[in-house]
Amino acid sequence: MRVKRMTIEEGKRVGISRFPNFHKTGSVRGMKKLYYGADRLLVRCGDYIYNVSPEPQIYNQATI
Asked: For residues 59, 60, 61 and 63, what is the CA-based torsion angle, rounded to 10 degrees?
C-alpha cells in the first residue's frame, strides 16, 4: 500500500487531526513495522502522515 496525499483543507473537512500521526521526515516503513502494522492505511496531509485505518473511506478519497 502507498501513502496517499490529501490537501490541508480536505484534511480539516474530514477531521484528520484526530488520528495518530508522525512527521513527514519519519520512516514510513519503520512506523509500519514498529507501531502500526504492515496493512495500515496512511495519508499525508501537510507536514504529517496520519494512520486512517479505522476509517478507510478517508484513505479512498485521498489522491495518490
From this structure: 80
